[in-house]
Here is the input.
Amino acid sequence: MKTSFKLFTAAFAIAALVFATETKAQDSQAWRLGVGINPGVSIDSPYGFVLGGDLKLQKDLVGPVSLTLSTGYTNFFVKDEFKPADDLGIIPLKAGVKVFVTPNFYVGGELGAGFGTNDGAETSFVWAPAIGWGFGNGLDLGVRYEEFTKYDASQVALRIAYGFNLSK
Here is the structure.
């Protein structure tokens, strides 16, 4: 199931990139800083609820494409029936691309590393495809799938963020 989801996500991202080349180009090449909260649901046991926060730096390029760099903190909470197992804390560091298919709707993806905060935790590869809607007033609402491969931990998360234009 995960392999088919990865293939679907890759095909969707490629289609969005092709479609985005036909959209109207953005006029600015602004720098933006987004601050977000990320409630989510784990797809893998023994975890249930997931909560995180992030900072995302975005550089608009010519056209509908932006580059992103993000970090923050994500906590996977262990379900009660799996206690006394520990919650999983991760500090992700990801780079990515965001493509605006319309002036407000975007698709994107990020790749990077997740640094575990638990004793003896290792560094994990992380990947995260996303879709979202950026409002003109700075509000950004998105949904993403995020997988930390080393920890067998993945989630579907909502991102509620506010972006500040650093170029003004």
About this structure: Confidence is low (pLDDT under 50) at residues 16-27.
